[in-house]
Write a structure and sequence with these properties.
The complex is a heterodimer of chains A (115) and B (112).
Chain A: E1 5-7, E2 10-13, E3 19-24, E4 31-37, E5 43-50, E6 53-57, E7 65-68, E8 75-79, E9 88-95, E10 105-106, E11 110-114
Chain B: E1 4-6, E2 11-14, E3 19-25, E4 32-38, E5 45-50, E6 55-57, E7 60-65, E8 70-75, E9 84-93, E10 98-102, E11 106-111
Classes of the chains: A mainly beta (115), B mainly beta (112).
């Protein structure tokens, strides 16, 4: 079964450093998402991406965040200057079509720890 | 009012029991509804979509009541492997995007 993959599985960084989280969505999917989940809290939507541009973003997704699809397969989330509160699990998800019942497939996540 | 609200639990039930979870959503324009399960420190995985007519998948039954903005999940003959957090997810559609909102989840623990 095709799956979404994410790298790295874990990342530890110092406050103020830049991090790039990588995702490889399912190959024929067209819509891509990033979510985060702070430990013990709910999954929060960050951003959706379609046709090489952001289609929707939440209040969390401020100027410190950016997304890119640099080479047609990878989908990256960059945090420019990490803060302690950015520590969370970051999930990538992809979807094939915008059909009403289309399923989102989640990657296994990257656990980010900011010290 | 929270956009998607769930009883956080935990529900602690014996193996074989029937357990029901509820979820309410605030936006009447919401169009798609799902139940996901999430195991500890893992990604959410789709359990089932929820249709207006109600739908069943083995031991799992999901119901949607649009008038009351209420979704339910029933698990019959619960197994130890059903222990997880169950997430209610609501999707709203706009002209060029969709918004996906997760509930905080209901924790279920099945005991032998």
């Amino acid at each position: 079964e095709p799956e979404v993959t994410q790298t790295p599985s874990h990342q530890v960084t110092q406050m103020g450093q830049e991090v790039i989280l990588r995702c490889v969505p399912i190959s024929n999917h067209l819509y891509f998402y990033w979510y985060r989940q702070i430990l013990g809290q709910k999954v929060e939507f960050l951003v959706s991406f379609y046709n090489n541009e952001i289609s929707e973003k939440s209040e969390i997704f401020d100027d410190q965040f950016s997304v890119e699809r640099p080479d047609g397969s990878n989908f990256t989330l960059k945090i420019r200057s990490t803060k302690l509160e950015d520590s969370a699990m970051y999930f990538c998800a992809s979807i094939g079509l915008a059909g009403a019942q289309e399923t989102q497939y989640f990657g296994p996540g990257t656990r980010l720890l900011v010290l | 009012r929270k956009e998607v609200e769930q009883d956080p639990g935990p529900f602690n039930v014996p193996e074989g029991a029937t357990v029901a979870f509820n979820c309410t959503y605030s936006n009447s324009a919401s169009q798609s509804f799902f139940w996901y399960r999430q195991d500890c420190r893992k990604e959410p995985k789709l359990l089932m979509s929820v249709y207006s007519s109600g739908n069943e998948d083995g031991r799992f039954t999901a119901q949607l009541n649009r008038a009351s903005q209420y979704i339910s999940l029933l698990i019959r003959d619960s197994k130890l492997s059903d222990s997880a957090t169950y997430l209610c997810v609501v999707q709203e559609y706009y002209s060029s995007a969709s918004k996906i909102i997760f509930g905080s989840g209901t924790r279920l623990s099945i005991r032998p």
